[in-house]
Amino acid sequence: MVSVGVGLGLGLAVPEIGRGPLLPSRQVAELLLATGFGVLGAATVIFSVLFLVVQWAATTFTPRLTLFRDAPIVWRTFAFVVGLAVFCATAALTIAGRDEVSLVVPAVMGVLLLLLLALLRSLLLQAVAAIQLAPVLRSVSERGRRGLDALRASGPGGAGGPENPAGPGRPAGRGRLRSTVGWPGSGTVLQRVDTGRLAAAARAADAVVVLRVSPGTALRHGTTVAEVYDGELPASTVLRALETGAERVFDQDPGLAFRLLADIALRALSPAVNDPATAVQAVDAMEDLLLRPAPARVWAHEVADRAGTVRVVVPRPGREDFLRTALDDVIPAARNSPMVLIRLRALLENLRGTGHGRVDGPVGRRLAWVDDELDARFPRLRDALAKERAEGGDRAEGDTGRVGEERPDGG
Predict the structure, then answer these.
(1) CA 209, CA 180: separation in Å to the nearest integer?
(2) What are the start and end residues of every segment in region (Disordered) (predicted)?
(3) CA dihedral over 149, 188, 326, 274, signed as positive or negative
(4) How far apart are the first and last CA of the chain?
(5) Handedness of CA 38, 39, 43, 44 (dihedral sign)
(6) How far lies 270's CA from each of 26, 61, 257, in Å?
(7) What does DSSP say about strands 207-211 and 310-316: parallel, antiparallel, or unpaired?
(8) Is the separation of the CB atoms in 15 and 94 below 8 Å?
(9) Pick the residue with more confidence: 18 or 245?
(10) What is the pTM for the complete model shown?
């Protein structure tokens, strides 16, 4: 709508410019109409590329990957095409009853066409990147890092709230439970929570809202989404602060990045694809995210009003949730791939060595799981890795891959 408005305004204003050389208005009007109808074909190109890339990403990576579909360049280019068509049609009608028109009119049209070509070039380059593994992994990792940074800023020890590692419960020092808010609609996904709006409403009612679901959670009819303590707050007010949709989004859901990376690794490890190198690349991206600081387990993000009174409590995921999403499906799927098992073991060793996990904790349990898979399926490889650790030598990834190769003499 903004592009249509700008195109309409330019189509009315530009023909009023009388400076510069003059051209016959009839020829200029024909040029404008031909260009206006011609650029509409660019919309066909945009949607053709969109359909192809979305289908490719769904079948090659994961159907939950919507980076290109949601990319601003796609819809801004489409809006620019519509605005340019409106400008050409409006300007042609404006100069229809005149004998001559300024050269500025076709010049403006030419500049807009060049801008459209630049947008189409950027769109096509992004489409090419969206069907290649490395750019996709980088895009998912970047969004995951932003989500984890926001989680750390609001997490225990961060600037956004006090520590409550036990998760959301009855707020300390508050009154009794007043009401429970259930989801009244059909199945959907919680995408975002407008905590500022909800805190303002809770402050006006002198209430505390404790959410029982976090962004990324699937909601079903009757699902308890929140509890209201102290004051009386209508359920409709709470529900208006919840933004839902058909799919998970990155904004407030750092776990989505781990879900996508795990999906890519699982598809690569499926018998139909059998591409362990792709799975290793996905695990590389997982490690980059898992090594970033994050709360250890599920915790409660408390949002206070201007007076410092806690008004909204939102459950937020911790590192254990990320480990479960990233690894618990990939480890059994990698049981026939020594390359991936070795990479998973290196990831878990790195997590344990950097203080992100302990031997008897979630990291240690998964490390023992990977070792069991190596013992059961690749005992020689497991013995070689144990010998290397005993000697204190670290090999590069390429050397590690050659450890599993058997020589003709059985070595």
Answers:
(1) 10
(2) 151-178, 385-411
(3) negative
(4) 70
(5) positive
(6) 64, 12, 20
(7) parallel
(8) yes
(9) 245
(10) 0.83
Cβ atoms of 188 and 245 within 8 Å: the answer is: yes
CA 367 – CA 345 distance, rounded (Å): 6
Amino acid identity, position 223: T
Distance CA 151, CA 144 (A): 10
Alpha-carbon span 357 to 369, nearest angstrom:
15
Place of tokens 């049981």: 335
Domain range annotation of the chain:
2-131, 143-156+255-295+317-403
Residue type, 189: V
Helix (H) or strand (E) holding 230: strand 224-230
- Hey, what are 33's tokens? 């109409």
Exposed, middle or buried, 57 (CB in 10 Å: 0-12/13-18/19+)? buried
d(Cα 240, Cα 365) in Å, to the nearest integer?
A: 42
Torsion sign over Cα 389, 392, 398, 402: negative
Q: Is 20 left (phi over 0), alpha (psi -120 to 50) or beta?
A: left
In tens, the pLDDT along 252-285 reads 999 999 999 999 999 999 999 999 999 999 999 9
Question: For 152, how many CA atoms within 13 A lie in the half-sphere containing its CB?
Answer: 13
315 torsion bin: left (phi>0), alpha (psi -120 to 50), beta (else): beta
One-character DSSP codes across 236-252: HHHHHTEEEESS--STT
204: tokens are: 């006006």
Per DSSP, the three-state class of 358 is coil
CA distances from 309 to 172, 193, 200, 302, 314 (A): 11, 19, 11, 10, 15
pLDDT at 161: 44
Q: How many CA atoms lie within 13 A of 406 on its CB side?
A: 8
Task: Check residue 407 and give its pLDDT.
Answer: 45
- Cβ(136)–Cβ(57) below 8 Å: yes
Place of tokens 């139909």: 272
Backbone angles phi, psi at 303, to 5 degrees: -110, 120
The half-sphere exposure of 184 on its side-chain side, counting CA atoms within 13 A, is 8
The mean per-residue pLDDT over the stretch 11-22 comes to 90
pLDDT per residue as tens digits for the range 73-122: 999 999 999 999 999 999 999 998 888 999 999 999 999 999 999 999 99
Q: DSSP per residue over 133-179, as a string?
A: HHHHHHHHHHHHHHHHHHHHHHSTTSSS----TT-S-SPTT---EEE
Q: What is the pLDDT of residue 171?
A: 53
